[in-house]
Design goal:
By secondary structure, the protein is α+β, with helices and mostly antiparallel strands. It folds into 2 domains: 95 residues, NE0471 N-terminal domain-like (2-Layer Sandwich); 266 residues, Double-stranded beta-helix (4-Layer Sandwich), CATH 3.60.130. The chain contains 10 helices and 22 strands. The protein has a 6-stranded mixed β-sheet. The longest helix has 14 residues. Bound molecules: N-oxalylglycine (OGA) and zinc ion (ZN). The site of N-oxalylglycine (OGA) has 10 residues, from strand 20 and strand 22.
């Protein structure tokens, strides 16, 4: 990037067209250029002080040239202002070239073969506490694979807080933080029983369910209670390739989720398609929870295909080709993208021993933002 320089500039009606020394071409819109003048931002707050609303939509370069040291200089038609742009900044932020590139998903999808290779997603508790490289390793597993198992954590109650603070603050919910996954009398959630839990995401009835979940195993001496996980993005990819009509239904027709927890003075409903996509048509989230799907209210012409699609998706999310099973031991923290990796457990016998997990949530923004920061400062 350092050696690339501006070779030629042509003024069009709405943009400057730049020819670069390596043969590439970029267009830079006038309002975009004025808005991104290097003097636009306050040094401390890093917020934009310049206000684009104070210039007209017809703003354009009265004069422009490349300075002796290779910068693009523009004298604007309005506001008595001259801007000076570093060519490497222009190149790095060039939206012409960015939009030419084919989108590549950051997600490394996985299937059942991960079960034999679980140490590939393990990271040691103290390594995360003591080093930025350990923290980055954990965050990379979480972001790219959507799953990680922290090993050798302490087993005292609430002892995952210092580890999670290495990333950021937690996401509070009415379950409190941490929430105790333990069987209790008169449970307000099927997780607080000894029953099996089918693969699900937590809190699908929120507009934005927590991006990540951390299940910290304090004790697991009961018979049963093995964990399961499945990469919902891998299943979505399979559906897109092999069952395009089902995929279309799952991305276009919303289903409904409900929370009517008897301990809360609240009633929550939320409609979402089971699969949502990002602006790049990559997978965004997978909402599947048999336990909290509400009475569906789809259009009568759609109900049959919605139920069939739900059935196909649900079966694949429990299919041995995709699902992994493993057993958490004391000091393990099963960490995963709650809106990608669906999780469950087998039933356990509460009379045979003890089982106690403590759960924490965090927003996806915290994981992505912290990882981006660590990568940038390296
Ligand atoms: C939960 C949950 C899994 C387990 O609490 O949401 O899914 O292993 N628990 O108990
Ligand atoms: Zn759960």
């Amino acid at each position: 990037m350092q050696n690339i320089s501006i070779k030629n500039i042509v003024k069009n009606s709405t943009n400057l067209e730049v020819d670069w020394s390596d043969g590439e071409k970029s267009k830079f819109n006038y309002m975009w250029l004025r808005d991104n003048c290097p003097t636009a931002h306050d040094k401390d707050s890093r917020h934009r002080m310049f206000n684009i609303l104070k210039v007209s939509q017809n703003i354009n370069p009265k004069k422009f040239l490349v300075t002796d040291d290779g910068k693009l200089q523009i004298e604007w038609s309005e506001g008595d202002h001259t801007s000076l742009y570093d060519p490497s900044w222009l190149r790095e932020n060039c939206y012409t070239l960015k939009n030419k590139k084919k989108f590549v998903s950051p997600y490394q999808k996985w299937d059942n073969s991960l079960e034999k290779n679980l140490n590939s997603i393990e990271v040691d508790h103290d390594e995360i506490m003591d080093s930025e490289s350990g923290l980055a390793k954990w965050l990379e597993f979480l972001h790219f694979k959507g799953i990680a198992i922290v090993k050798n954590a302490p087993v005292e109650k609430e002892s995952a807080f210092p580890l999670l603070k290495r990333i950021s603050h937690v996401r509070e919910t009415f379950f409190k933080t941490p929430f105790d996954v333990i069987n209790i009398p008169k449970p307000n959630n099927s997780a607080y029983t000894a029953h099996a839990l089918r693969n699900h995401l937590d809190l699908p009835y929120f507009e934005t369910p927590p991006g990540y979940q951390f299940l910290h195993c304090l004790i697991n001496s009961a018979t049963g209670g093995n964990s399961s996980a499945v990469d919902g993005f891998a299943v979505a990819e399979y559906l897109k390739k092999n069952h395009p009509e089902t995929f279309k239904t799952l991305t276009e027709i919303p289903v409904k989720f409900i929370d009517n927890d008897y301990t809360q003075n609240t009633l929550r409903h939320f409609h979402s398609t089971p699969i949502t996509l990002t602006k790049d048509k990559d997978y965004n989230d997978i909402r599947f929870s048999v336990a909290t799907m509400d009475v569906l209210d789809c259009h009568p012409d759609d109900m049959e295909k919605v139920y069939k699609a739900h059935h196909v998706l649900g079966n694949l999310l429990h299919d041995d080709r995709f699902q992994i099973q493993f057993r958490l031991g004391p000091g393990d923290i099963f960490s995963f993208n709650n809106r990608r990796v669906l999780h469950g457990r087998t039933e356990f016998d509460p009379n045979s021993g003890h089982r106690h997990l403590q759960g924490y949530y965090m927003d996806r923004d915290e994981i992505i933002g912290r990882l981006a920061y660590l990568k940038k400062s390296n």
